[in-house]
């Protein structure tokens, strides 16, 4: 009996036996080493995250080699702690899930190798999960959301609008053509000398600033087009700072932070509003690290109240990278018997369409 046949037989036996489906999930796509045990895609039994933020702060951003080394050092401990906190042993589980794309290739390899080793040793089914599918599925851990809905995914590496028609059924409406929203925030934070991670520091500085003090461009929405672009905005902000310094004037950090944040949020809200109007969807899920931004949450709350749309934003800790969201995204694939074999590998770039 081959690997696929063995996994199907195990899946069918579990389905016949009944009872909850407990999945161990591993996430290592960037600079957090995380593991979690998730029951039936919605109930969180444990979640452990080992952050590398302090290691990367002195570099002003994530250093891939440093991240990979830290994942290697942490992954075994994190998995063991997640099992302990869930009061589970490997034999109690029904599957192993792991982020295998997209992300930093070396970092992904660590998580994928760990998951494949556990699957091989235990005979448990292996489920590779797309990182964006994980962010979208995070909403299921803090609400009773069911498709269809519009999903806005905003993070350091991604900015996308997706129509979610069913579990694992995505249609991309728009994505960034250049910088992601979080990436743009990080770059301007670095230029302002605020440090890393940039998003929270920009938001903090913006509280003391005037969002209308500096005129910055906002990419407009074209009819039937919802792609984002933040490179022009970033260039305009850097040019303004350069002009101020050349004129021997001190850059007003708070005003720049507030103005830049407002321009990013305005673009996100305009595109989301247009997509809601076009699709007629009555639910909006916001996911990814930038979903933790208070100004974005406030603006989207206003938008959804105006349109009569239900807004779902995961709890703050679920917006940043974690393994719980990977376990939630893996559950529908488990139910459908969509397993990977031991040839599963890490991929730095992979669209949701290719993954599905």
Outline the secondary-structure elements.
Elements: H1 3-17, E1 22-27, E2 32-39, E3 43-51, H2 53-57, H3 64-86, E4 95-101, H4 105-122, E5 126-130, H5 131-137, E6 149-154, E7 159-166, E8 169-175, H6 181-191, H7 198-206, H8 231-246, H9 253-279, E9 283-287, H10 294-307, E10 310-312, H11 316-319, H12 324-335, H13 352-355
Parallel strand pairs: 1-4, 4-5, 6-9, 9-10
Antiparallel strand pairs: 1-2, 2-3, 6-7, 7-8
Can you describe what's shown?
This protein has 356 residues and is α/β, with parallel strands linked by helices. It has 2 domains: 3-137 and 320-355, Nucleotidyltransferase, domain 5 (2-Layer Sandwich), CATH 3.30.420.40; 147-313, ATPase, nucleotide binding domain (Nucleotidyltransferase, domain 5, 2-Layer Sandwich). 46% of the residues lie in helices and 18% in strands. The protein is built from 13 helices and 10 strands. A hairpin with a 4-residue loop joins strand 1 (22-27) and strand 2. The two termini are 26 Å apart. The model has no long low-confidence stretch (mean pLDDT 92).
């Amino acid at each position: 009996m081959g690997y696929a046949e063995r996994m199907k037989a195990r899946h069918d036996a579990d389905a016949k036996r009944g009872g909850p489906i407990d999945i161990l999930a591993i996430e290592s796509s960037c600079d957090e080493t995380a593991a979690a045990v998730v029951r039936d895609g919605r109930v969180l039994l444990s979640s452990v995250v080992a952050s590398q933020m302090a290691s990367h702060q002195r570099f002003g951003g994530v250093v891939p080699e440093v991240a990979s080394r830290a994942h290697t050092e942490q992954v075994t401990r994190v998995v063991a702690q997640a099992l302990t906190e869930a009061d589970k042993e490997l034999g109690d589980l029904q599957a192993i899930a792991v982020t295998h794309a997209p992300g930093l290739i070396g970092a992904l390899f660590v998580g994928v190798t760990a998951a494949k080793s556990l699957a091989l040793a235990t005979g448990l089914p292996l489920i590779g999960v797309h990182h964006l599918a994980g962010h979208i599925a995070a909403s299921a851990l803090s609400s009773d959301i069911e498709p269809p809905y519009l999903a806005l995914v905003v993070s350091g590496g991604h900015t996308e609008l997706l129509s979610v028609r069913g579990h694992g059924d995505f249609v991309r409406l728009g994505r960034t053509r250049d910088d992601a929203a979080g990436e743009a925030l990080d770059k301007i934070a670095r230029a302002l000398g605020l440090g890393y991670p940039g998003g929270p520091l920009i938001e903090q500085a913006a509280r003391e600033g005037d969002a209308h003090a500096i005129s910055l461009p906002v990419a407009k929405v074209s009819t039937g087009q919802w792609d984002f672009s933040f490179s022009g905005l970033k260039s305009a902000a850097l040019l303004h700072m350069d002009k101020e310094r050349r004129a021997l004037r001190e850059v007003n950090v708070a005003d720049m932070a507030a103005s830049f944040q407002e321009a990013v949020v305005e673009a996100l809200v305009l595109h989301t509003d247009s997509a809601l109007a076009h699709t007629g969807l009555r639910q909006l899920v916001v996911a990814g690290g930038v979903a933790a931004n208070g100004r974005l949450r406030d603006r989207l709350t206003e938008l959804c109240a105006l349109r009569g749309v239900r807004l779902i934003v995961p709890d703050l800790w679920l917006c940043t990278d974690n393994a719980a969201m990977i376990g939630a995204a893996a559950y529908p694939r488990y139910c459908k018997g969509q397993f990977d074999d031991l040839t599963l590998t890490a991929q730095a770039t992979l669209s949701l369409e290719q993954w599905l």
